[in-house]
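Q: Can I see a sequence and its folded structure?
A: Here is a first one.
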Amino acid sequence: MHIEIHGRRDADAPTLVCSSGLGGAAHFWMPQLDALTSDYRVVLYDQLGTGKSPATLPADYSIDAMASELRTLLASHGIGDYHLIGHALGGLVGLALAIQQAPGLRSLTLMNAWSRVSPHTARCFSVRKQLLAGSGPAAYVEAQALFLYPPDWIAANIEQLQIDDRRHVAGFPPTDNLLRRIAALQAFAPDAQALAGVRQPTLLIANRDDMLVPWQCSRELAEQLPNARLECFDYGGHASSVTCPDTINTTLKRFLASVIHDTEYAA
């Protein structure tokens, strides 16, 4: 599996592990690097079967398997204590790690995540799968921005999005891998007892204008976790770490500082 380690290299540096959403790529977190690397060691990775981590995923692939793969990857690089930041599917990986009682996991930041897939989200994925089957990767990629970003942000960034679309089509993953990853995130549904056992300090970030995952999913998840708080923003869409990096980076740094230095978190 492809891994990148950025930022501080000293032995005392707190470590952040960033886990991406459905696309699985380390590149998703580029808007966070400058803000985080001065204070932290930042670990990025391409999830198995995506990007620079090619593999054929099994038919019964699961979020638990993704969590186990990440545990193995971190152990192989001598990474002990860490704070996980996960977006959507990556947040589910973080939840699975906490439920597995993974050693070294000190806190969770879950962005636009959920404990059980919403019927709205399931419908969105049904449409996306039909686009892929009927029209191919180019149509799937072009539609992807509609689920990730607010309309005005798309309009203001259309030239860069067109460049990104061509790159995504050129590096499109095997269709079976993508479908198995979608199936894994839709099947993930930990019960109340499992969620009640997650003791790590947890920050949930949601956006009221998220077209893919209703913000109420984060609220419901926060209510099920014993040591969680929710930050909900009006604007940003599903990928607010890309569309509103300054807001998200400030929020991340404030939460991480409160956890690491055991101080009160102030919204």
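Q: Show me another, different protein.
A: A second, unrelated one:
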Amino acid sequence: MLVVDDHPLLREAIAARLAQMGAGTVHEAATVAEARARATATGPCDLAILDLGLPDGSGIELVTELRSHGWPRVVVLASSDDPYAVRSAFQAGAQAYLLKSASPVVVTDGVRRVLEGGVYADPSVAPVLATGTRVAGTDNTPRELSAREVEVLQLVADGQSNKEIGEELSLSALTVKSHLSRIGRKLGTGDRAQMVALAMRAGVIR
């Protein structure tokens, strides 16, 4: 795992918590440049946790870079609940947005949800995600999803595979895949994490 934050004590505390959760190796970086160097040296790790307010560059851009280089899970741990930052983080590919002011339990829950394949937003930023239903680049909105599509998306957010979703809803895996294709067309993205993030932002799923 990789932890990127310019505050040494916070960085060490997060690394220690990840170790308690069973992380094998936790790499640390204090800047965007250090994070890039670590990412290049290690290749994609299981999880990256990073601050947005780094001293030498944009944390949002770093999220985009890590995701484009094959990092499967990125969690943002930020001091700001600014709506623009929250939405930008999810749109860049982050699977969770946590606040530094959150309790250790909330942080642990968020990280665990992401490791299980889900998406998580700090409870205090949920109202931010629920405002503004229009999806960038398309006239469709998550509120146009059918009840069944919302059910499918909720189970995706809970970290379930297509097969598990099919068993839960008494559907074939192929039907689940068809639902996800339609959802993707409506939301303007084929990425599961981004579908969930957009629907969460609109308050359609929790």
